[in-house]
Amino acid sequence: MSIASLIAKKKLLTIEFNPPKNTDIQKHILKLEPFKNIVDAINVTDSPMAKPRMNSIVSANFIKDISEPIFNLTCRDKNKIAIQSDLLAASALGLKNILAITGDPAKDNDSVYKINVFELIKLIKNLNEQFNTGFFIGCASDIPKTNNISSIESRLKRKSEIGAEFVITQPIFSKNDLERFLEASNNIKIHKIIGIMPIVSYQSALYLNNNVKGINIPKFILSKFENASIEDFKLITFELHNKLLNDIKNLLPYIDGLHIMKLDYEIAQLTKKFLEV
Fold first, then answer.
1. Residue 79 has pLDDT above 90, yes or no
2. Residue 106's CATH number
3. Alpha helices in 33-116 (DSSP H)
4. Which residue segment(s) compose the domain that 151 sits in?
5. Tell me, which GO biological process terms does this entry list (predicted)?
6. Tens digit of pLDDT for each residue in 130-149?
7. Residue 165 CB neighbours (<10 A)
């Protein structure tokens, strides 16, 4: 199955799943079970931050009875032959949704990067045409700042023209963020799933803000968490998420769904209700 059949009918809700750093996938499946009737798809990451985790295709196959998986595939770790082999295996397993991304670079020049993300999208499209693999091809996009809207537009347009059919963005933190992305993508034929990242801890937020390309957490949001107690932290996270949803409400007609970058049942429930109104 592909989320392509859903995306034309409703606003999608997707969540992010990082596969285990060991072999214990069953423990993670239990954590995903409560989301079974809430989310439309689960985005399965491919060793984010270049830290080894269980293969995204294998992990996606394990969780496909919970929700439709979107497996990530980076350019970072394999050459073209290995990537094509993985794609053929994914198709044989019945996996249809793929997010083609560059991937966070590994340290010590340990990255492969034999092909770039544009070549990866072309490769997937060629497999669709040659072997009828039926992949629904997705890509990622940064949220533009005021001074780089045209460059974000150009990069996303190129991905769309060579085969990408949907995009999952880096997280937005304000209505202005979403408005800039919609300006950049206004004339691009692509389904738009917008990333939202509830903050799980002050230290992790600082780390992501300083080390992950495309994540730009405003200082006023970080300051709210700096000295918050454990009890206040969850309340602040929920309040900020609720405010963001209300702020972007009038922009819903221009997007195709929301992607929550955290396994949080209450946040997912709130977002589902918001999308169903």
1. yes
2. 3.20.20.220
3. 56-63, 80-92
4. 4-276
5. methionine biosynthetic process; tetrahydrofolate interconversion
6. 999 999 999 999 999 999 99
7. 21
